[in-house]
């Protein structure tokens, strides 16, 4: 707290929306595998599963949809970092993309709305 007021960092806000996205995806029937996977190549917010498929989830928040909104904020460069981090995760588990079905989903939080985009990229 600074001057008696709570301090909201972007990391704390990110954690809040990642938990919101996690709850939403659990309600949709997905299973949580891991939160905040980090490796030298990047970070994956959530790793979920459904059936045999691993789902690498990017969670994005924007206060509103001005400037394209949350979904547009996942640039091609960010997608590439996510792919590399996913490959790192798979290798750490002794898997590869040809033997493990996987996909990349996006949960876009804009204001009070949550949008789940399976197979986002």
Automatic annotation (TrEMBL):
<comment type="similarity">
    <text>Belongs to the UPF0102 family.</text>
</comment>
<dbReference type="InterPro" id="IPR011335">
    <property type="entry name" value="Restrct_endonuc-II-like"/>
</dbReference>
<protein>
    <recommendedName>
        <fullName>UPF0102 protein BFR47_13640</fullName>
    </recommendedName>
</protein>
<dbReference type="Pfam" id="PF02021">
    <property type="entry name" value="UPF0102"/>
</dbReference>
<dbReference type="InterPro" id="IPR011856">
    <property type="entry name" value="tRNA_endonuc-like_dom_sf"/>
</dbReference>
<dbReference type="InterPro" id="IPR003509">
    <property type="entry name" value="UPF0102_YraN-like"/>
</dbReference>
<dbReference type="GO" id="GO:0003676">
    <property type="term" value="F:nucleic acid binding"/>
</dbReference>
């Amino acid at each position: 707290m600074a001057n008696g007021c709570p301090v909201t960092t972007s990391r704390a806000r990110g954690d809040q929306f990642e938990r919101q996205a996690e709850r939403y995806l659990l309600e949709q029937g997905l299973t949580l595998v891991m939160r905040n996977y980090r490796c030298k190549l990047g970070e994956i917010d959530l790793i979920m599963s459904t059936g045999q498929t691993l789902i690498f989830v990017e969670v994005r928040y924007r206060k509103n949809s001005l400037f394209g909104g949350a979904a547009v904020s996942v640039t091609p460069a960010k997608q590439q970092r996510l792919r590399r981090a996913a490959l790192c995760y798979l290798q750490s588990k002794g898997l590869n993309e040809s033997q493990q079905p996987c996909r990349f989903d996006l949960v876009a939080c804009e204001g009070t709305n949550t949008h789940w985009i399976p197979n986002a990229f």
